[in-house]
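Hi V.,

Quick status before I head out on leave. The structure for the redesign project is tokenized and pasted below; the design run finished overnight.
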């Protein structure tokens, strides 16, 4: 195995480990899929995949440039992301859907569910730091632009593939029916997770230099 192949496998492995790790994206797709059906879940998954390009764009521009043009930008993302997670968590806990109603699910705004995915991932510091560290430490500014864009597409499509799979499974009628019979537990659990993530995020500081939270 040559160095290029080994590097590509490393980047792909790191990407999928990041995608598969539980977080706000997973909670929102699970919420939409279980409570509102496959259409809502897939829309959120699509929004998450689209938002990945936001992170890729400024990662390609470089952390130093982002920090020079907009000092404290990551802190703005952190605070906005925390506030949005808390809002979605509280809304999830308050949302009730007593039966599997396809008509109600079909009337939901597709744009709204896509926007939920975009905001959840776009304001997700976990994704931000992952993409920044990937481009600064493994891909590098010396990598040709087409290759950098190809890796951006890989990151985006990896998110779409995983969360679409999650949505398809959780939106199956048998799964939804079972979940909706216990929907209070689901709503409260996902709501608590999102609020908890939001509060934890407010208490952390992002350190772009090392790609972690401190």
């Amino acid at each position: 195995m040559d160095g290029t192949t080994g590097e590509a496998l490393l980047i792909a492995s790191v990407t999928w480990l990041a995608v598969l790790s539980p977080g706000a994206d997973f909670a929102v797709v699970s919420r939409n899929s279980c409570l509102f059906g496959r259409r809502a879940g897939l829309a959120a998954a699509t929004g998450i995949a689209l938002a990945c390009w936001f992170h890729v764009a400024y990662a390609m521009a470089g952390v130093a440039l982002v920090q020079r043009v907009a000092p404290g930008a990551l802190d703005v993302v952190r605070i906005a992301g925390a506030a949005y997670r808390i809002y979605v968590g509280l809304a999830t806990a308050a949302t009730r859907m007593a039966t599997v109603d396809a008509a109600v699910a079909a009337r939901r705004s597709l744009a709204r569910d896509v926007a939920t995915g975009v905001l959840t991932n776009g304001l997700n510091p976990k994704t931000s730091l992952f993409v920044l560290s990937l481009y600064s430490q493994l891909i590098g500014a010396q990598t040709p632009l087409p290759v950098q864009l190809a890796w951006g597409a890989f990151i985006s499509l990896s998110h779409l593939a995983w969360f679409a799979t999650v949505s398809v499974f959780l939106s199956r009628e048998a799964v939804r029916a079972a979940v909706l019979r216990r929907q209070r537990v689901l709503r409260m659990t996902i709501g608590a997770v999102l609020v908890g993530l939001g509060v934890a995020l407010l208490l952390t500081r992002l350190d772009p230099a090392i790609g972690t939270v401190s």
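Above is the designed sequence. Confidence is low (pLDDT under 50) at residues 208-214.

G. will cover questions while I'm gone.

Best,
W.
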